Amino acid sequence: MREMVANILDYNPDVKAYNKEINRILNEVYLEFMTTQPWTFTQQTLDVYTIPDTTQTDLVITPKTTDGLNVNKITGVNLTTGIGQTFNSGQMSHEGSILKIENDTDGLNDGIYSLDKIDVTPGAESAFVSKISGNRPIVNWQGGAGARTVTGTAQQRYLVMPKDCCQILSVGIRNHEEAGAGSNALGHIYNLTRRRDEELDLRFDLTGTPTDWVAYDQAPNGYQDYTHFIPRAGKDFKVELSTVSPGWPQGTYEWKMAYVWHGIEGPLSDPFELTISESNKRPLFGTLDTTNLGIEGLKKRMYVRLKSINGVDSNLYEEEYYRDLGDLWFDNYSNVGSGQSAGFIIDDATTSVAWPQSDLAVDRIDILRTIPRLHHPTSSRWRIRLYPRPTVETPIRVRYVSLPAELIDDHDQPKCPIDCHRYIVYRALEEAMSKHDNDDKAIIYQRKADKELQKIEERHLTQRSALYIKGNMRQGPMRIRPYRKLNKVFGADGS
Q1: What is the pLDDT of residues 236-249, one digit of tens each?
Q2: Closest CA to 104 of 58, 62, 150
Q3: How far apart are CA 180 and CA 282, in angstroms?
Q4: Among residues 401, 400, 378, 384, which one has the least CA distance to residue 216?
């Protein structure tokens, strides 16, 4: 599309700053175009699985001692059948779920908590929780001296939508066979606004087959949210070098970090640059001990950009986009933190960890290029609450408008049909002309873009919902067409 801009303007200087500016304008127009209408080519369908309720009757809490070591902590967590277990659908766990505590001796600690972290360290299996409501998340277990046995039920109250979900169109249970035995009945699940949800006073603890869903675009009910943690390069993290053989390819790298809270990564940091100028070197990541913030479970995820790397035949190789080290899938790490089964995600209390070269030896350009590309830097994540809440593993079929990845590399292609490219180019030219105070040209390209948009709407807008209503009996002199007419009434949801 940048070439189309150059051909129309008959102007194509080989200037990096100019190309970068055109790329920025094209991306702004492209992302706006892709997300403002429920185009057929932007809709995605995905099964998001619910997690079954898990109850454990032998959890142990200990009232605060003089050293305060038992604050927020629950011991005796069972990793096989209790609240610490993982499930088959995407290896999900109850981190981020609600933990309902009951049967405390005096009832002092009964209530609802947020399950922030599950520590799977052998011999020290435990969970860490925080208060959902109140001014402080810290939990100080109440009561006399000695441990207290309580019952805890982990409940998944909210479903997190995919990273690229920017508008939910439909929710239902469609894939019954994959859910297995005990799954809920098939059917459509209807949308309720948050206001209507409050008016009906729908209970959070009611379980059964879901009939309605409520959307949350922010953290619900006073939760600590992933957007609250914004890392800074050189302050929250740094990258140095350690010795290993073989080492990473020599060259200059840029690193970014995001905090991970309840399994969701938050905003990216500013970049941290590191140059490897010697052989047999690998990155060494220094991070903060986030447990010092008074919470547990705030982990760290790293991203890397190949800024200028020695490639094949001594040619420099560079990329404009970042790659996600947390999206790798390989064996357990012994030096990253407890319970790491996939992805390079640094544990909350870990302050220094080197790249696990023994698990994945990164020593060539082609290995670096196998690291998955970061397509969707997280700025917001949709959640939904189902009513009633299912207590079994159920595939919830979600249809949504997908946010496309930015066009960064020269070889990136728009995720839209080719007949839409001209509209994006015309709209970008309108913006460029307006920026340079050429209003006459801006109006010309605006009109061209509007004409192209009209064509695209006729071709690619999803057909609206339609209701057919039988009319009165119609009968002519010759008894021709003695049938009721079907009147078509369009819906207003655009889906």
Answers
A1: 999 999 999 999 99
A2: 150
A3: 45
A4: 384
DSSP notation for 436-481: TT-HHHHHHHHHHHHHHHHHHHHHHBPPPPEEEEEEEE---TT---
The residues, any chain, with a CB within 8 Å of residue 267's CB and separated by 6 or more, are: 227, 230, 231, 258, 377, 378, 379
Task: Collect all residues with Cβ–Cβ distance below 8 Å to 458 and sequence separation of at least 6.
Answer: none
DSSP string for 260-294: EETTEE------EEEEE-SSSEEEEEEE--GGGGT
DSSP at 313:
G
DSSP assignment string, 380-441: ---EEEEESBP-S--EEEEEEEEPPPP--STT---SS-GGGHHHHHHHHHHHHHHHTT-HHH
H helices, E strands: number in the chain: 7, 25
Determine the Cα angle at 168 with ends 166 and 170, to 5°: 155
Give the H or E element holding residue 18.
helix 16-35
Contact 458, 452 (CB under 8 A): no
Q: Of all helices (H) and strands (E), which one includes residue 198?
A: helix 194-200
Distant-in-sequence, close-in-space partners of 479: CB < 8 Å, separation ≥ 6: none
**How far is the CA of 485 from the CAs of 40, 59, 475, 476, 479, in angstroms?**
30, 66, 11, 13, 15
Structure tokens at 477: 């002199």
Q: Where do we find the tokens 């309605």?
A: 212
Q: Could you report the per-residue pLDDT of 110-168, keeping only the tens digit for each? A: 999 999 999 888 888 999 998 876 556 778 888 877 889 999 999 999 999 998 998 99
How far is it, in rounded angstroms, from Cα 69 to Cα 67? 6
Ramachandran sector of residue 60 (left: φ over 0; alpha: ψ -120 to 50; beta: rest): beta
pTM: 0.84
Both tokens of residue 176? 């019954």
